[in-house]
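chain below, 253 aa
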Amino acid sequence: MNTAEKDLKITSLIENVFKKHGKDFINLKTFLSYLDKKELSFLQLKPNSIQDAVEKAISPVKSPYQIKKFKQSKVLFNGPLAEIALAYIEKRKAKTFGQLNKDFPVIKGEFIDLVNTLLDQGCLRARISTSEKIILYTVDKKATQLLTETAKTEDADLFAMSKAFDTRTLISQFKDAYYNVGKGANYVFIHQIRNFLGWSRKQFDELLYQMMKQGYVAAHPGNPGALMAQEVRDSFQDEYGDLYITVSWRKSV
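prediction:
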């Protein structure tokens, strides 16, 4: 098994653990408890392995995953901290800063920075309760970023028009294609999604790149030798020349 294939398998393993766990963060001791004998053997771990050994086994952790130390634990996060903090606050509506900070596994100073960032971005609003405590609320904002196809293209499809489309709608269409093609698989070939949608190459690549940046999907490298030449061309190459062959869905639209 080469490095790319091993990374892909570790990524798939991490995704499965988060699906079972049902939360966007997990300490490495708990992470270990979700692994079966085959997975433990693959990672060269034991049921009583220490957290440092677990971290080493799944490292280097690929973006958007990250590991942070919190008190006596090491915590694996299932995406960017700001997004996870926002989802965490949204589930715990109208809670005080202290109540929220108590169960979120980062130090108080870092949680303050996360909350301030979300306030600055307009994702949160704060009120002062009668007991003079800060209560946080999420803001229900519809996606405002629009994709506009202005370049002339030879492809005769819906996205070749000089018309703006709601990003959320496009992402929903991509997600539908992902599940139609993947049929429940943990990761789906990019070339299959591209062919299913039939969009122009420019439109598809721009949307996929935005979805990767915003954490909707995680893109994974793989073994291009297992694909036909056209399938490799219909995968995705970023601005640095890195080739990605599959994607896995990360968060709801």
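The domain at 81-138 is CATH 1.10.10.10 (Arc Repressor Mutant, subunit A). The first strand starts at residue 25 and ends at 27.
thats it, cya
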